[in-house]
Specification:
It is globular and about 40 Å long. The chain has one domain: Jelly Rolls (Sandwich). With 228 residues, the chain is of the alpha+beta class. It starts with 12 loop residues before the first helix and ends with a strand. Strands 1, 2, 3, 4, 5, 6, 7, 8, 9, 10, 11 and 12 form a twelve-stranded antiparallel sheet that branches. Strand 2 and strand 3 form a beta hairpin. Helix 1 packs across helix 4 and helix 1 runs parallel beside helix 5.
Length: 228
């Protein structure tokens, strides 16, 4: 395999944002339609092959040992998380903040037809997460505000980075547009896929239990707005 020509970009969020923006713009019309067709319940869209594969693999390989992350285990969730990016390989922090580039935020704002949109610059809710066999996230609603309780949380961005991840391994995003007693929509946590879902008072979502002795990794961001 040819030596990766993007190695010099691994430390630079602006260049990662360039690549993300280019990929999203390529499918802009399709993404707009996907979100528009679903927004009357829980709006969502997803896009595959977001970054060059070797960069996505580098992000995955840079995830820390779970022992260096915070374990969250309760009735709602069972997973590892972290928002203290200075402890880890810089590419993890760079990849998180690439999604906060104003150009990327504005492009997603345009796709979702949201009047105002702001990134989670303090990582109040964003960061990285890792799930292993038996871990899960039960149906729930996200916290509704930003850290200062001045803006509404309106979008959840989930970028999946585990190579060769298959549906049967679990760890897939589930959204429940008609409530948790009805059927869910499943968005597989495929390698190098970005999933974006609306968060509001009815946007119940979950993550199916991991069934494989492997790690499902995710880079997470949230966007806020002046109004719902």
């Amino acid at each position: 395999m040819e030596t990766c020509k993007f190695y010099d970009l691994f430390m630079k969020r602006e260049q990662l944002a360039d690549l993300i923006l280019e990929r999203i713009k390529k499918d802009e019309i399709h993404l707009q339609k996907m979100y528009r067709d679903s927004e009357n319940q829980i709006g969502y869209f997803y896009i595959d092959n977001l970054l060059p594969e070797d960069i996505a693999e580098k992000i995955y390989s840079s995830f820390p040992n779970p022992k260096l992350m915070k374990l969250r285990k309760n009735l709602r969730e069972f997973k590892y998380t972290s928002a203290q990016m200075d402890k880890y390989d810089p590419i993890l922090e760079e990849s998180i903040y690439a999604f906060q580039d104003p150009r990327v935020v504005n492009q997603i704002r345009h796709i979702c037809s949201i009047d105002s949109l702001y990134p989670d610059e303090y990582l109040y809710a964003g960061g990285i997460s890792l799930m292993s066999k038996g871990q899960y996230l039960n149906p729930h609603l996200d916290n509704s505000h930003d850290i200062d309780r001045k803006r509404w949380r309106v979008l959840n961005l989930l970028y999946y980075t585990s190579p060769e991840w298959k549906h049967d391994y679990g760890g897939n995003l589930e959204i429940w547009p008609n409530g948790v007693k009805s059927n869910q929509i499943t968005i597989d946590s495929n390698f190098n896929r970005l999933a974006v879902i609306a968060t509001h008072g009815n946007s119940w979502h979950s993550v199916s239990p991991i069934s494989r002795n492997s790690f499902r990794t995710c880079v997470s961001n949230y966007y806020f707005s002046d109004s719902l």
